[in-house]
């Protein structure tokens, strides 16, 4: 939303990767890091300094979505089962309930 209403000014004088003076052409990322193209190489789609953090966040989101899906499956099977204990035992055995309960407790 801020990008739609405010201009972003980039005034970096050094390449965030090499520390050398920023040479043109340069690549500027929304995180504020700037790089000389020759330092960046082919990886100009994402900031190499912030990419590991972004991947971690994406992995956590993926894991949470998968956990929610497993939780839905658990409750559906539990509701439709004549023997709820076997469903609970199966999900505990697969370690799914441990991950779901850990996530909901924190």
Structure commentary:
This protein has helices spanning 2-5, 37-40, 51-80, 84-93, 96-105, and strands spanning 26-28, 34-36. Helix 3 packs antiparallel against helix 4 (84-93) and helix 3 (51-80) crosses helix 5. It folds into 2 domains: 9-40; 51-105. With 106 residues, the protein is mainly α. The longest helix is centred in the middle third of the chain and has 30 residues, at 51-80. 55% of the residues lie in helices and 6% in strands. It has a two-stranded antiparallel ribbon with strand order 1-2. It comes from Tetraselmis chuii. Keywords: Membrane, Metal-binding, Zinc, Zinc-finger. Pfam families: VPS11_C (PF12451).
């Amino acid at each position: 939303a801020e990008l739609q209403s405010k201009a972003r000014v980039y005034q970096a004088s050094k390449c965030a990767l090499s520390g050398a003076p920023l040479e043109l052409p340069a690549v500027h990322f929304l995180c504020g890091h700037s790089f000389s193209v020759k330092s960046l190489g082919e990886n100009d789609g994402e900031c190499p300094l912030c990419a590991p953090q972004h991947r971690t966040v994406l992995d956590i989101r993926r894991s949470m979505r998968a956990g929610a899906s497993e939780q839905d499956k658990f409750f559906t099977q539990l509701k439709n089962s004549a023997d709820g204990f076997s469903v609970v035992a199966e999900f505990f055995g697969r370690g799914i309930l441990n991950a779901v309960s850990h996530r909901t407790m924190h």
